[in-house]
């Protein structure tokens, strides 16, 4: 039994869900998302609650049950409130700035790193050492944040680099005399 799948997905005001043709379409104020539904599960909208139920007791049906419910919940939250990931930059001379449709990163390399901002994602730099990534697709926001962090991941000796907000970097002791 899926503990995640048993619970319904609350659909807030202003979000419409259409389940037809083997796919669920979620529309909200921030955008529209579509999810293909497995043939192993059934999705029903009852009032303001979205229920996901397995059609049989096979292993594939049980796996799809919780995953489908979690993906639908992420889509509903994404089109209604959106997702935000914040990154912090630590290090002397390390900075970021948004220029047009690109994110310019000065990370101590011999050249600036230019990161193109994809459709559906908004990137803001309130300070030169803080990057805020927002959008309605949870997977896309997390992927972009991971790609930006990979430009200069934090190193364990001084903690210099790009890290997630609130991320704890395990520090190592330096050389001993």
TrEMBL record:
Keywords: Ribonucleoprotein, Ribosomal protein, RNA-binding, rRNA-binding. Residues 11-82, 91-164 form the Large ribosomal subunit protein uL6 alpha-beta domain. SUPFAM superfamilies: Ribosomal protein L6. The keyword Ribosomal protein applies. One of its GO terms (cellular component) is ribosome. Part of the 50S ribosomal subunit. Belongs to the universal ribosomal protein uL6 family. This protein binds to the 23S rRNA, and is important in its secondary structure. It is located near the subunit interface in the base of the L7/L12 stalk, and near the tRNA binding site of the peptidyltransferase center. This is Large ribosomal subunit protein uL6. It comes from Dongia sedimenti. The gene is rplF.
